[in-house]
């Protein structure tokens, strides 16, 4: 595999190409990700003199059988920008490597052993109910996130709320690749509706748009039912 270095509206000197090959050590990269397919480096220059301290931008794109990893940085010269981008790439590669390693090494704890590994965990009987609740003849009720669960129910419910500015579909795809996820929830800047982009097979992507149907909302509302019934 070779490193492809190209310039966008700027010339790339041979000296810089050699520096890229030295800075981005392929042997070290392949130790962190053995399935690397290509490594591209794009150099661009900002002509605005007011942005002289960030005039040179370097973007590194690493493609493998897993998620695409991108790292970019801007500085007053291309060499400094490359150093910053290479450091970001290394951090993200190590994060992906550690994530894969932890998944492989993770071991699920059988339900019968939970009490031994988790202090304060409830002791369950053969029906999956807490022993104390069975003695009292009651089905335990617990609050999990925004749900009220009786008896058997979801063991883990993770609830998150994010504040995000509307963005285009292209930007959402870029953000998804940047964080290395298989899907990305965003607010479409054109429709102002929530949407999801997701990874399909190979390098194909899909998008799901969520749109409110006012007719369904009216039919399901208590007021609408009362009007029809009267």
TrEMBL record:
<dbReference type="InterPro" id="IPR036567">
    <property type="entry name" value="RHF-like"/>
</dbReference>
<keyword id="KW-0810">Translation regulation</keyword>
<dbReference type="InterPro" id="IPR038416">
    <property type="entry name" value="Ribosom_S30AE_C_sf"/>
</dbReference>
<comment type="function">
    <text>Required for dimerization of active 70S ribosomes into 100S ribosomes in stationary phase; 100S ribosomes are translationally inactive and sometimes present during exponential growth.</text>
</comment>
<dbReference type="Pfam" id="PF02482">
    <property type="entry name" value="Ribosomal_S30AE"/>
</dbReference>
<feature type="domain" description="Sigma 54 modulation/S30EA ribosomal protein C-terminal">
    <location>
        <begin position="153"/>
        <end position="207"/>
    </location>
</feature>
<dbReference type="GO" id="GO:0022627">
    <property type="term" value="C:cytosolic small ribosomal subunit"/>
</dbReference>
<dbReference type="InterPro" id="IPR032528">
    <property type="entry name" value="Ribosom_S30AE_C"/>
</dbReference>
<dbReference type="Pfam" id="PF16321">
    <property type="entry name" value="Ribosom_S30AE_C"/>
</dbReference>
<comment type="similarity">
    <text>Belongs to the HPF/YfiA ribosome-associated protein family. Long HPF subfamily.</text>
</comment>
<comment type="subunit">
    <text>Interacts with 100S ribosomes.</text>
</comment>
<dbReference type="InterPro" id="IPR003489">
    <property type="entry name" value="RHF/RaiA"/>
</dbReference>
<dbReference type="GO" id="GO:0043024">
    <property type="term" value="F:ribosomal small subunit binding"/>
</dbReference>
<dbReference type="InterPro" id="IPR050574">
    <property type="entry name" value="HPF/YfiA_ribosome-assoc"/>
</dbReference>
<dbReference type="InterPro" id="IPR034694">
    <property type="entry name" value="HPF_long/plastid"/>
</dbReference>
<keyword id="KW-0963">Cytoplasm</keyword>
<protein>
    <recommendedName>
        <fullName>Ribosome hibernation promoting factor</fullName>
    </recommendedName>
</protein>
<dbReference type="GO" id="GO:0045900">
    <property type="term" value="P:negative regulation of translational elongation"/>
</dbReference>
């Amino acid at each position: 595999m070779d490193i492809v270095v190209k310039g966008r509206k700027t010339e790339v000197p041979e000296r810089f190409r050699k520096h890229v090959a030295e800075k981005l050590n392929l042997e070290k990269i392949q130790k962190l990700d053995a399935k690397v397919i290509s490594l591209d480096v794009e150099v661009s220059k900002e002509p605005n003199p007011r942005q002289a301290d960030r005039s040179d931008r370097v973007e590194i794109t690493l493609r493998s059988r897993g998620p695409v990893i991108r790292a970019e940085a801007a500085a007053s010269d291309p060499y400094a920008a490359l150093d910053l981008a290479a450091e970001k790439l290394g951090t993200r590669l190590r994060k992906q490597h550690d994530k894969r390693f932890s998944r492989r090494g993770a071991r699920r704890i059988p339900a019968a052993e939970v009490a031994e590994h988790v202090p304060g965990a409830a002791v369950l009987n053969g029906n999956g109910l807490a022993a104390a609740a069975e003695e009292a003849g009651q089905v335990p009720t617990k609050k999990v996130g925004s749900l009220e669960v009786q008896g058997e129910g979801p063991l883990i419910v993770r609830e998150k709320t994010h504040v995000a500015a509307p963005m285009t579909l292209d930007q959402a795809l870029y953000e998804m690749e940047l964080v290395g996820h298989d899907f990305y929830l965003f607010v479409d800047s054109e429709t102002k509706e929530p949407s999801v982009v997701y990874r399909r097979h190979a390098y194909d992507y899909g998008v799901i748009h969520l749109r409110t149907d006012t007719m369904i909302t009216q039919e399901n509302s208590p007021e609408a039912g009362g009007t029809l019934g009267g």
